Structure formats: C-alpha cells, structure tokens
Amino acid sequence: MLSSHGLAAGTSSRGSGRTPAAAFRYARLCSARTQSRSSRSVAAAVAAERLDAQVCVVLGTQWGDEGKGKLVDILAQQYDIVARAQGGANAGHTIYDDAGNKYALHLVPSGILNRDSTCVIGNGVVLHLPGLFEEIENLKKKGVSVEGRLKISDRAHLLFDLHKEIDGLREAELAGAGKQIGTTKRGIGPAYSSKATRNGLRVCDLHKLDSFADKLRKLSMDGEKRFGPGFQYDVDEDIEKYQELAKKVLPYVTDTVEYLHTAYDTGKRILIEGANATMLDVDFGTYPYVTSSNPSIGGIATGLGLPPTKYDAVVGVVKAYTTRVGAGPYPTEIFGDLAERLREIGHEYGTTTGRPRRIGWMDVVALRYSCKINGLTHLNITKLDVLSELEEIKIGVAYKTPDGRMLRSVPADLETLENVEVVYESIPGWKSDISGVRDWKDMPQAAKDYVQRIEDLIGIHCKWIGVGPGRDALVVKPAKGKC
Ligand code: IMP
Ligand code: MG
Fold first, then answer.
1. Mind listing the pLDDT tens digit for each residue in 214-235?
2. 84 contacts 109 by C-beta, under 8 angstroms
3. Which one GO biological process term can you cite for this protein (predicted)?
4. Is 20 part of a structural domain of the chain?
C-alpha cells in the first residue's frame, strides 16, 4: 500500500467575506454553475498532480450517501478506467460537471463524465438492463456518450422486474411485523438471493435466448409459488423485451476480468468506485438492516476479480456528520429541529428514492470499525460546509452499555447496539461560510480543529475536504505537521 502523498492543494484561495447565515445558505444552495468559474483550476490542479496509486479504491465508510461520486469524478481525470464492483441501482451518485449540470447516476460509474475514462461494470453488480439503458439515454441527452466507453461483465447477474416485485412483497410482509428494512425497492436483495440460490441469470445468458427464456420462466415460477396471486409479473412480456435488450447490451459485454488484468499489466490506472457503504455491508453492517452485497473491501475483490494485493490506495469517504436511509439502529441519530435544519442545508433526501434521510453526528466508533475492515489509506471528509451554522458540533467517541461497559467497536447484536449510550466530545462551531475556501490555510481554525480531531481519533490522513457540491469545492489538507 502506498502512503498518503500525491495531490496538490487547489490553486485558488477564494476566502469569502460573507458570514451571515443567509449568505452561506445561499452559497450552498446556488447551482454549481456559479462555482464553475474556478472549477477547472482546482479540478485541474488535482488532476495535474497524480495520486501515486495505479489502483485506487474509493469506499463509503458510513451508511451511504457520503458523496463518493464527487471524489470519483474528480480522480477519474487521472485514471484510465473507472470500475464498479457491487450493488446495483440502489446506489445513487449525484455529481456536477464543470458547466454545473447535475447528473444522478445509479448503475453507470461516475467516471463516465471524464471522456477519457473507460467504465467497467463488474461481475459483482446486479444489473437491471432497462434501468441501465434509461441512464445511458439520459447521459446522451446531456451530450455524454458511452459508446465504446462502457464494458459490462459477462458474469454480472441480471436483475429483473420480478426481483423488484419480490422486494416490494417482502417489505410488505415485514411491515406487518413492524420489521421493514426500508429497502430502495430496486430488487437488490432478491437478485443477490437468486445468485446465491444458483437460479439467477447472468449477462452471458443473453447469448442464448432460448435457454434464457427457460431459465427466466423457472425463476418466475419460483416467485409465483412463494407469493401466490400477489406476485404480479408478466414473464412472457419480459422475455419479449429481453430479445431487444440483448441486442442492445451485447456490444458492451466483455470478460472484464481479462480486460482489467490486461489493462493493469500494461500500466493502465484503475479507479474503483464503491457503492453503498460499510455500515450497510451484509457481513459487517447492522444486519438485517443492510444491503445484500459487500460494499467493503472484500466485495471489491470478488466483484471485479482484481485482487487486493494490487490496491495501492483505499480512500474512505466520510461525511462530516452522518445520514442513514431506511430502518435500523443509528446510535448518533439527531432528532427534531436540528436534524431538520441539517437535512435542509445538506439536501439530505435520497438520490434513488427521494426519501428524507435520517441525520446524526459523526460516529467515530463506527468509523474506526470501518477503517479496520477496509484498510483505509486516506480519508475524504465531505460536506463540511453543511455544519457551518452550528454553535457546537458533537463527535460520538465511545459506546457505553446500560451496565456501564465501554465498547471499543460496533457490536454484532442489534439489541446491544440499540441500547448503547453514546459518549460525545463537543467542538465549537466556526459559524462562518466555508463554501468559498479552497486552501487549507484559509479554513477557520475551528473547522481545522474539527477535521484534525477526526484525523487524530482515526489515525488516517483526511486528505480531501469537501466544502460544497461542485467539483471545485474541495480543499486538500496537508499531512499532519505540515499545516
Ligand atoms: P437495498 O440495498 O435496496 O436492499 O436496501 C437495504 C438498505 O440499504 C436500506 O436501508 C437502504 O436504504 C440502504 N441503502 C442501499 N443502498 C444505499 C445507498 O447507496 N445509500 C444509502 N442507503 C442505501
Ligand atoms: Mg447515494
């Protein structure tokens, strides 16, 4: 693993004189278009000084929606290939291009906005083809072509409308018992279930449409048997649809294991974009309130066939506070007006479902756990500007059980987790607009202290700090001792 060196600080330092709350609210809400004047300078500076890592992995460390897409989009400018390894259209990445156009991506890797990158959808992804082509059409409408720039693994499992149907039916059953997971209803769990049950269909099955139709009929019969008349899926209609979809997708289909290894051996640089996040990992997250793949580092290896010995940097993306969509324990959750305020300032509504996200303080116990599991080499703190109005900012540093035990890590048992009392540290807020800051030395001292405290608690360099949605709204923090 390489250490944390590489990217330069942004070149422009547009310290802002606007301090009133209204001004910095405006600064955050305004479109990235107004910020794009300097976006080339900062993004270009980041791109010019290459991260010293041939393979770099970017992972979500909390409960998703940390803002991974923005860093991937920026780093993509220095990578030849951007690959997705797991998850499906449950992921939602919102990114802005230099002109301030907004893109909400679900299946296509965020690197697609960099016209020089080739994007890979790996074998670990569950792929809903109609959704993929809708995304491709939307990109085309905005002038982004994917022709020749997208490779799809022939081993990836197909996610059908029947999986979405089952997702909804299962959630409805669980709701009766008050145990709903709050999935994105994108069919993710049922698609991974088919994969594990070994009756799933893969992209390579689209080469043989007769046996494809037989397999899909069998899969549909399974759903009918399990759910009876409640299961609404027209298998013949879907088989018909896939005749066309097969023709459309086959030009993109590749043995991506071979492709990635050949690329690696010829010195190509590969950026791997995680989806979802470690606290939603089916093994390490708050099971069963999790997604059905491994968004942590192991899922990257199995989802692409590129082994961990080749990863030079593993960047953990950490939101300056936390959010979670769907049910499940959330020790540092905030309620009431403050949660409402942060939700509005941070636009914390799901990219995929539009649901309001739950809001919480930074949880260092969960973050440390996530760092251990993933072997992170750098951190990217995002959305620091969202905290700018606060008088006081809290950091959850330990969990205490009702019988007084201090827990060093996240417990497996949900009842234990639900009943912990969080021990907080309190840091004064900076109460000024940081959305225009581009250089670490222009950051208010209290904001520096907050970032430094997290870095000290975790022991990993917070190299990039996000201060707004646009590509340019990024500050590069020097390693400790150099600030
Ligand atoms: P599923 O992945 O749709 O099955 O949803 C399972 C749980 O993971 C739900 O709580 C979802 O809200 C959550 N989830 C899945 N993907 C994401 C994501 O990308 N961001 C945030 N939450 C997610
Ligand atoms: Mg998201």
1. 999 999 999 999 999 999 999 9
2. yes
3. 'de novo' AMP biosynthetic process
4. no
Cβ-based neighbour number of residue 352 at 10 Å: 18
Q: Tell whether the model's pLDDT for residue 40 goes beyond 70.
A: no
User: How far apart (Å, rounded) are the C-alpha atoms in residues 106 and 125?
Assistant: 11
The answer to whether 477 is a known ligand-binding residue is no
At 36, list the tokens: 């794009």
Q: Cβ < 6 Å from ligand 1: which residues?
A: 64-65, 90-92, 181-184, 186, 188-189, 275-276, 280, 289, 291-292, 325-326
Nearest C-alpha to atom 20 of ligand 1 is from which residue? 64
Q: Are strands 150-153 and 118-121 parallel, antiparallel or unpaired?
A: parallel
Q: Does residue 162 sit in the same domain as residue 135?
A: no
Q: Look at residue 19 and tell me if it is in a domain.
A: no
Contacts of 247 (CB under 8 A, 6+ apart): none
Q: What is the mean pLDDT of residues 363-381?
A: 98
- Residue minimizing CA distance to atom 8 of ligand 1: 291
Please count the structural domains in the chain: 2
Answer yes or no: pTM beyond 0.85. yes
Cis omega (within 30 of 0) on the bond before 428? Answer: no
For 445, residues 6+ apart whose C-beta sits below 8 A from its C-beta are 430
